[in-house]
Amino acid sequence: MDTEKEHHADNFLLKLISEELEASAFSRDMCTRFPPEPNGYLHIGSAYAIHTNFTIAQRFNGTFHLRFDDTNPLKEDIEYVHAIIEDIQWLGYDPGTHIYFGSDYSEEIYNAAVTLIKQGKAYVCDLTPEEITEHRGTLTEPGRNSPYRNRSIEENLELFLKMKNGGFPAFSKVVRAKIDMGSPNINLRDPVIFRIIHAEHYRTGNDWCIYPMYDFAHPIQDAIEGITYSLCSIEFKDHRPLYDWVLKELGISEPPRQREFGRLSLTGVVTSKRFLRQLVEGGYVDGWDDPRLPTLRGLRRRGYTPESIRSFIEEIGSIRTQSTIHISLLDHCLRQDLKEKTISVMAVLQPLKVVITNYPEDVVEQLMIENSSENEALGKREVPFARTIYIERDDFMEQPPKGYHRLSMKAEVRLKGAYFIKCEEVIKNPETGEITELRCTYDVLTKSGTGFTGRKVKGTIHWVSAEHAVKADVHLYENLLLDQDIPKDNSKDWTDLINPNSRVIAKDVLLEPFAQHADIAQKFQFFRHGYFCLDTKLTSDDRFVFNRIIPLKDSWNKR
């Protein structure tokens, strides 16, 4: 056990659990769970919670459960269930057959409430939601007892059964636990444990019209499934006494233990479901899978890899409190993952025509170019080279400043994997003065890979053969919000917060022909521009649409 303690020293949660199990072990195997509500999509913060539960189960040779907290039919949908399962599997935290639904335990949870009523530990209350809040008191003032708190057990049982059978309007009555209205912990001031909702449930239909509150259902569901540790984010710490109270009053032997970890936030990133919904429903973004959003579906569409997200979470380690991590760490983990597994191809985003006047008109040369400067194992590919090519418009300047190492008049650069070229003439539009074409010459002796040891040039630029170029649209993404510090009170309109350049669309970008064989899941490095992938939503049989996953270098310090 000493080795185990040493191994867990840098992870407070693992250390805590190890010490607790050493002092008082369970007679059953370790079992953790992740309990999402199927009323929205998972985001990067959710990944941290999933990772915590999954990896701790693994460390102690246990099992990991995915359990849907589907106890509110007004907001839940099967669409979210499928999306959550898919996202968790994509992340690499597959629960296998251990997928459960809180709604499957409706009868058991109802019976648990009946048990508490029979013990005099719960009662039916007729106060409105507003009146319940008023009676609850404040952090400095105790609450007041409900006038219905002393109903007889028989009356409470009769009323609860009538609630179950649809005898009352929605929200007209609730069941409350009878604990202590004077408790310094507001969560123990006779919390609501059941309410009436007349709505069709996506799984149980109209079988039920009463639904448990999460704080009541959660410990019962954990007990039913044999969960040993209910690992929650830090905001549930004040709810732990209620969790323990429910299990104790129901007489659960070897009850699950709730323990908390820190909640993860990222600079400049909205993870609040309420705020995300405003962005989506307000039309500020292209749905829940918009590549600018921190939803897992958005990150997947953008091109983030599950390996990079797992690496990011592991880099953070175990956190105790609310923690805000700079998003540059996530970007770093993504670059580290992509740089050794991506093929580097040439793409010209702002094309400028170049005619190599001394190159034969009817010749197409197949050049062998390395697929990656980071990983030789990725091999090489053939790239066609011909008389007319395109280069980036900003790779040429007529009057370059000092230190400019790209193409200029009478100066040479190397074409990536090809030859040296020199600009001899500039063709302009006579009306606008815009440069429309460059006339260049090449030196046949400077072909890459031939052992040329003559003159040297400082600049290398990328290019695409005009005859063989593949057209595509490219979406260039930046941070969605102008300010990394999002107002907590939502005091600003989203219009004032959204970066107007968070998505820039480059039309008719030219790519080397290798890109037309891209697999939908494949990632590329576009020489000098960053890492890219096909947009799974917008790409069609007759049009390629690429997303820039991330630039080659960190640009956060420039924002």
UniProtKB/TrEMBL annotation:
The organism of origin for this protein: Paenibacillus eucommiae
Residue span, Glutamyl/glutaminyl-tRNA synthetase class Ib anti-codon binding domain: 345-443
Membership in a protein family: Belongs to the class-I aminoacyl-tRNA synthetase family.
Protein name as annotated: Glutamine--tRNA ligase
EC numbers on record: 6.1.1.18
Residue ranges of every copy of the tRNA synthetases class I (E and Q) anti-codon binding domain listed in the record: 460-535
Primary enzyme class: ligase
Entry-linked Gene3D superfamilies: HUPs, Ribosomal Protein L25, Chain P
Location of the Glutamyl/glutaminyl-tRNA synthetase class Ib catalytic domain: 31-339
Cross-referenced NCBIfam families: glnS, PRK14703.1
Keyword terms, alphabetized: Aminoacyl-tRNA synthetase, ATP-binding, Cytoplasm, Ligase, Nucleotide-binding, Protein biosynthesis
Molecular functions per Gene Ontology: glutamine-tRNA ligase activity
